[in-house]
UniProtKB/TrEMBL annotation:
SUPFAM superfamilies, sorted: (Trans)glycosidases (SSF51445)
Primary localization class, coarse: secreted
Organism this protein belongs to: Hypsibius exemplaris (Freshwater tardigrade)
Database matches in Pfam families: GH5_mannosidase
Name this polypeptide is given: mannan endo-1,4-beta-mannosidase
Domain of life, source organism: Eukaryota
Length: 184
């Protein structure tokens, strides 16, 4: 994949499951409070190959959609609350921050470098397509307070990489343009 991308002139790849997978036994985060150590192998290898080929990676930290690789609804589901509470519930925010810390501080078994220091990492995306689509995903999108809190938290551990607001279809409604810790 990387060789093909390089031959086509690509310099950046965005990949959902490098930043997370949740909600099933083979996922990186099978439940809110557990990490599946064997799931790091594939993630580590991709970061290793990206570093070798010079490709940069954009990694979402969760997803809005209920796909096979999980979504932010797994956090509230594991706590017995509604998905709409993800952006406002302090316990869920703490759970998400714990995952972020674990992910950023994970040391790659191929390179010996923590994700937060990886030359392959280009941007950390708060989540894929946070939006309002009640028929398929959610009835809420992240408020400015959540975006500010999460992006500032990431910056305390990693100030070298861009933070991408993954909110979709609510252009400016979260006051995201005024949040200094969001880069994109």
């Amino acid at each position: 994949m990387f060789a093909a991308a390089v031959s086509m002139g690509a310099t950046v790849i965005r990949s959902h499951t490098l930043g997370f997978s949740s909600g099933n036994a083979n996922a990186l985060q099978p439940t809110t409070t557990t990490i599946n150590a064997s799931a790091w192998t594939a993630i580590d290898y991709v970061f290793y190959k990206a570093t070798q080929t010079g490709i940069k990676l954009i990694c979402p930290l969760t997803d809005c959609y209920n796909y096979y690789h999980g979504n932010y609804g797994d956090y509230p589901a594991n706590r017995g609350v509604q998905k709409t509470n993800f952006f406002t519930n302090a316990t869920l925010t703490a759970d998400f921050k714990q995952f972020i810390s674990t992910w950023l501080n994970h040391v790659n078994t191929y390179t010996g470098v923590a994700i937060k220091n990886s030359p392959a990492l280009f941007a950390i995306e708060t989540g894929n397509e946070f939006n309002i689509r009640p028929d398929v995903t959610s009835t809420t999108y992240p408020p400015a307070s959540w975006l500010s809190d999460i992006s500032a938290y990431i910056k305390t551990m990693d100030s070298k990489h861009f933070i991408l607001d993954g909110t979709d279809e609510n252009f400016g409604n979260s006051n995201d343009f005024a949040i200094s810790t969001l880069d994109m």
